[in-house]
Amino acid sequence: MDDGRAVIARPEELLGYADPSDRPEATGVDKLVLKRGNLFLVANRLGDVAPAGARDLGLFLTDTRHLSAWRMSVSGGPLLCLSSQVSSDYVAQVDFTVTSLHEGDLLGREPLNYVHLRRDMLIDDVLVDRLVLTNFQGKAVDAWIAMEWAADFADVFEIRGARRRERGSYHAPKVERDQVVLRYDGRDGRRYATEVRIRGVGPDGAPAALASLDGRGARVKLHLEPAEHVEVHFAVAAGIEHGAPGRTRGLDEERPVPPSAPRPFGARASCTHEAYSAYAAQATRFATSNDLFTSALEQAVADLKALTVYHFGAPVISAGIPWYTCPFGRDALIAGYEALVAQPEVARDALRFLARLQGERDDPTRDEEPGKIPHEIRFGEMAAAGEVPHTPYYGSVDSTPLFLMLLSEYDLWTDDHETVEALLPAAERALAWMDRWADPDDDGLVEYQRRTPQGLRNQGWKDSHDGVPFADGTPAEPPIALVEVQGYCIDARRRMAALLRRRGRRSEAQALVTAARLHAERLEERFWMEGKGTYAIALDRDERQVDAVTSNPGHLLFSGAISDARARQVAASLLGRESWSGWGIRTLAAGQRAYNPLSYHDGTVWPHDNALCAMGMASYGMTRQAGQVLTGLWDAAQHFRQLRMPELFCGLSRASGQFPVSYPVACSPQAWSSAAWFLLVRAVLGLQADAPRRTLRVVQPWLPPWLDELVLHGLRVGPARASLRFTRGKANAFAEVLEIQGGELKVRIEV
C-alpha cells in the first residue's frame, strides 16, 4: 500500500452514480457465472457487466464488488451474439459476428458477416478475458477493440439495497503503461484495489498497439490481413490490504492483489480443467442411461467445487452466487448432508468450519449464545466496520440441531473417528444450547426471537419477513416455534444418543432418548391440525397454531419425528393439488390468501426443500412418492441453463406444453440446490450406510420410467469404495454389486 496521498475522487465522476443501492437490476435471468475460490464473476450472457452498477452483476472478491462495469465493443459497431456457453469447469465461451457498422467506421458501411469475435473467460487467481478477432474476408481489415470498466467497491449488502450513512474514499485511477489500478479506502481501515492489465498479440506474435488507456477504459488498434486473427487479453486482479491499524474488527481478512504473471489462456484453462477433474475423481461417479441426467449430476459435482470458499485457511461450501457467496450455517449443513453420497468432504469441511465459530458468549447484538452454531459470516467492509452484525451473525434457530444431525450422519457414512472425536465437544455444547437457550419459556419447544434490531425477524429457513404466515396472510409474531425445528431437535437428540452409545456413554444416551420422546409428544399435541391433515407451520407468541398449509411439515418426515400414519397424511398433503405444482412441492399451498407463487417463500418451489421431503418419504417406505418429486424437479431442470437447479423457481401450476417459470433473482448455482440431486438419488435407491459396522443397506430401490439404469462408481462407505448397478424393473429396481475396494463392506440388498 502507498502512503495514501493519492488524489481522492468523487464517486459520481468515476462511476456515474453515487449510491450503489440505487442501481437497477440487469434485465433477464440468463447470466454467465464464473468462480474460483473467493473470486467470482456474474455477467450478462454477452460476458459484460452492463448496465454499469447493475445490482446482480459484477466481479466480486468475497463480499465486495471489484468491477461494477465491464463492457466490450468492436469498432463501435453492433455485435450479434451467436453462442454463449459456460463449460462444467467454469470456462466461458461467447461467439459474435460484426453485423453492421456506421458510416465512417474503419470497417465500412455495408452489412458484414466476415469478422468473427470469440470471447473466452475464466477465473483462476484473476479474471481473464481473451478476445480473438478473426478476418474471414479476402481483404485486410483495420479495427479496434475497446473495453470500458469501473469499480464501485460496493458491499454486497449495499447491492442488495442497504443504505449507508457514509462510505469510504475513492482514489483517482492510477494509469501505467499497460495497466490501471482502481482503489478505495473503506471505513473498515482496509484498502480495496482492482488492477486491469491489457496485452494485445498480433498475427505474428508481436504486441498489438494500445491506442488509448485511461482510468475508465482502453482501446487497442488491430490490423488483420485475410485469414489472420489477433488476440487481446485483459486480466483483472482484485485485492484487499490492511490500512489504518485498529479500525478493523471481527473477521476482516487480507488478500493482496496477485502479482502480474502473464500466462497463455490455454495454460490457464488446462489448469482449471485439471483442478475440476481432480475434484471429480474423488467424488462418486454417476453413470446413467439418460445422458442429460448424467450431465446434470456431473454439473452438480462441479458446482460443489466452484462454491467452495476459503477463510482462515480452511475450505467451506458457500451458499450461492451472487447473493450468498459466504459461509451460511444452515445451507452448508444441509448441502453437506445432501452431498454425503457424492463428496463427504463437503460435510466434513462444514462441520469443522462452523465448530470453529460456535457461539461462546451471550451477545444480543449478534443473536449469539453459548453453543449456538452461526447463521451467516461476512467478510466485507460493512461487516468489518460494524455496520452489520455478521462477524458472525447467529440468528438461525435450526443451524445448531442440523449440526448435530449432520455430525451423526457423517459418522455413519465415513467412520471418520478422528474428525468426529474432535467435534464431540462442539456437539456437547450444541446439545447444551438446545437445553438451556433454545427454550426460554421452558415449555418443551424450541423457539426464536431476535434480540437485535439488525437481526432477522424470522430465523428458520423461510427467513423472509413474511415467511411464516397464517393462512389469511397475517405474519406470525415472535417468539415463534417452527414445526420443522422441533423435528430437527428430536432427530438430533436421537442421533446423538446413538453416537454416544457407540462410544459407551449409555447413561447420557438414554437421557437424550427420553428428552427426544417427550419433545415428540409435545410436537404431536401442539402442532397437528386435524381438519387439514397436516401440521401447523409454527406456534406464535400466543401459542396459537399458525395455520397455513406449507411444506415445512415435510421436514418431519426427513427427521423421522412422527408416526407412520401421520407421515402418510403429510405426504398426501404435500403431493395434493394445492401443494404440488407439477414441477415440485410448493412452499405454501395454493388456495390460501397467503399464497403467492411469485414470492420468495410463500408458494415457490425450492429444490432443497423438495429433496428433504422426498428423502423423508423414502425413509417411511414411500419410495414412489419420492420418485414423483425427483421426476418433477428433473422435468423442470431440463429447462434451466446447464441443467442446474436454481435456488428456487416460481410455483405456477404446470400444464401441458408449459415451462417452469424462473424466479428473477434466484442464486444459481446454489449449494443446497445443486446437491439436492444426490439426496434425491439416495432416496429412490434406498441407500442407508452404517460405516462403523462396515454395512450398506439398499432398501427397496426404485428408478423412474425415464431412467433405465444408474451406476454408482466409487461410492464411499467408511474406508471402502463400492460400485453398484441399479436396473429398472416392473416394481422395484434390481441392484447389483460390481466391485468393492479399499476395505471391508457388506452390502445388504432388501427388495
Automatic annotation (TrEMBL):
Q: Which Gene3D superfamilies match?
A: 1.50.10.10
Coiled-coil segments: none
Q: Which residues form the Putative glycogen debranching enzyme N-terminal domain?
A: 34-233
| Transmembrane segment boundaries | none
Biological process (GO) annotations?
Answer: carbohydrate metabolic process
Record-annotated Mannosylglycerate hydrolase MGH1-like glycoside hydrolase domain positions: 337-638
- Give the protein's recorded name: Amylo-alpha-1,6-glucosidase
